[in-house]
Amino acid sequence: MADNEDLWVCGGLQLENKAYLAVWKREMEGKNNDRRKRAGTECTETTLSIPLGGLPFAEKGIKVSCIYPKNEPVSYEVHGDILTVCFDKPVMARLFEVWYNVRG
After folding, report:
1. What value does the mean pLDDT take over residues 2-20?
2. Is the CB of residue 95 less than 8 Å from the CB of residue 67?
3. What is the signed CA dihedral for 62, 58, 54, 64, rounded to 10 degrees?
């Protein structure tokens, strides 16, 4: 559950074969990472690591794509079932699509 003092906020919608994940960074006075760090989430002022292992298709391997906005650069990477985003501006938001990696 997000708190008004959280620097990072994310929310998602899970479908059968994919999920959508919205991630916001709200760097302003009074916002911090305290609750996320106490919960064991890896985060800094510019990066957030989001565990995606709870998705039903995660054991098949996952792929991630930034779908909005497509024309604005964003740095992100997936290692195993962890998505790490790097937002270099004080206030940013991105929408990601997550699906299983079909091996063939």
Report:
1. 87
2. yes
3. 10
